[in-house]
C-alpha cells in the first residue's frame, strides 16, 4: 500500500466550520444492562458503558475515520446509527431529522440513504441465496424497478465493484474473502445511498487484498460522491482513506483532527501511543515506541475522571478526578486532555 495520504475530498480547515454537516452525532450513549444472576436479583442493575457521550460531524463527500483498540465502542456507534441496535441517549441528525426518532416508513427511507458494510463478509451474506438474489433484495424491499430492471442494476453494480457477471449466479461460499467483501459493498451501493458506514471492512482480509478494497472504496466514493464513516482498529489503514480521524478510547472520542494534522502532531498521549506502534516501511528506520502499562479498564466500571488516566504515562492528579472536555487546540484539531486545559 502506498504511503501517500489521500486528502482529495477533505473539508478545508478554513471552510469546515462554515459547511453544514450531512450527519451530526450529538451526545451518543449506548449502555448494555448486565444480565442478573439469581443472587443479584433486587440489587442495582449494572451497565456496560459501550459508548459514553460521543459527538462528531460528517461532511458531505468526506471520509471520517474512527479508530481505537478493540472493544472501545467503534462498531457500536456504526450499528447504532443505522438502528441495528437502539441508543440509550443522544441524537443523530441527518439533514435535520433525528435518526433515532424515525419509525416505519421513515426508518425504511433512512436505510436507503445510509447503508452499512460489515466486518465479516461471510456471516453478513445469506449462504442459501445466490449473489444476484442478495444484491437484488434491497431493491425489492425499497420497491425499486421491476424484475428485469433489478437484474440490470445488479449486473451493473457487480461490474462497478470489479466482479464478473458470472458471479451473479454463484453462492457466497464459492467466493474468496475479498470477493465477498466486494459483494457486501455492492449490496450497500445498489440502493444509491448518500452515506456508507464501513465497519472494519478490510480487517479480515490479506494485506494485498486490503489495498485493493481501499482503492475501490476511494474510486467509488469519487464517482458517486459518497460520504464514508470508516471504522477500523488499525490506524495505518485509516490514514490512507480518511480526511479526518476520530480516536476512541473506552467509549469516548479523545482526539479529532484532519488526517495530516493528527499524523504530524498527535496531541493526546493515547494517540501518540497508537502512532508509535505503526511499523515504518523502512526496517532500518528507528522511532521511539510508547508502551502503555496495564490493561484496558472494564467498560462495566470505567475509571473516574479521564478514562485513560490508569494507563497514561503523563497522568496528573486532576486526571483522576475531573473528566477533560474536548478543546480546539489548533484549527480543527480537538483534544480531550488536561494537558491542554
Automatic annotation (TrEMBL):
The keyword ATP-binding applies. This is ABC transporter ATP-binding protein. It comes from Sporosarcina siberiensis. PROSITE patterns: ABC_TRANSPORTER_1, ABC_TRANSPORTER_2. It comes from the Bacteria. GO terms for molecular function: ATP binding. SMART domains: AAA (SM00382). Residues 23-275 form the ABC transporter domain. InterPro entries: AAA+_ATPase, ABC_transp_ATP-bind, ABC_transporter-like_ATP-bd, ABC_transporter-like_CS, Oligopep_ABC_C, P-loop_NTPase. The keyword Nucleotide-binding applies. Belongs to the ABC transporter superfamily. Keywords: ATP-binding, Nucleotide-binding, Transport.
